[in-house]
Amino acid sequence: MKKIVYLLLAVTMLTVSNNAEAQHRKRSHSRVFDLELRGGVNFCQIDGDAAGSYNKIGFHGGVNTSFPISDDGSFRFIVELGLTQKGSQINNSTLDRHINLFYVEVPLMLAYDFLEQKPLRLAAGIAPAILAKAKVTTDGSYDNLQSDNYKTLDPLPFCASLRYRFSEHIGVDVRYYNSMLNIAKENGSGTYRIFRSNKGQFSRLLQAGVTITF
After folding, report:
1. How much helix, strand and coil, in percent to the nearest 5, is found in the chain?
2. Would you list the DSSP string of 87-102?
3. What is the pTM for the complete model shown?
């Protein structure tokens, strides 16, 4: 009888020890930095440019890392560096114009990882962007005046992200971006954000793509 009791105690202690070690590894893993590559397509428009649909197709690519800001690692802060193509396409009875804006952006987002293995991530923040190149064509010809009309910095675009990992490394994500400050230097017309004096043109886009997590 004593041998059975001792055996049960030994099995119980071994099980508790193994569970504690597994939890320790899980907590340790949740506390480290991760690395993610992402890329895909953009569906873009510019509010205030006399067009109103996501008919401009672009691309995006970037690399980001995140680190935990809560004890269980569910809340994380994301820092990213990426290249993205924004703009719009105006095609009506009076105007044929294609606006291509290439930005280097630095999204900064607060994220929360859901579910047991944390495959679902919801994030929101801002994505300051520096204009690397602007190319506008009007009626098929390069438009120098319009190409020079976009500001070098878009300092306050709002962004929100939803990512789902199918495995430890591969996932898909969608993002929404909306500039909060006017991106154009001069505006013959336009709309506004937040307050009426903040009037002009504002990039808005949806992203869809693939992620690879290391």
Report:
1. 15, 60, 25
2. EEEEESSS-EEEEEEE
3. 0.83
- Of the candidates 171, 180, 174, the one whose C-alpha atom is nearest the C-alpha of residue 161 is 174
167-190 burial, b for 16+ CB within 10 Å, e for fewer? eeeebebebebbbeebbbeeeeeb
Q: Hunting for tokens 């017309």 — which residue is that?
A: 189
pLDDT bracket for residue 182 (50, 70, 90): very high
Kindly indicate the confidence band of residue 27, based on its pLDDT and cuts at 50, 70 and 90: very low
Rg of the chain on CA atoms, in Å: 24
Distance CA 72, CA 145 (A): 53
Give per-residue pLDDT as tens, 132-164.
999 999 999 999 999 999 999 999 999 999 999
Cα–Cα distance for residue pair 102/73, rounded to 1 Å: 34
Tokens representing 54?
């996501």
| Both structure tokens of 29 | 């893993």
Residues whose CB falls within 8 Å of the CB of residue 118, separated by 6 or more in sequence, listed in order: 30, 73, 74
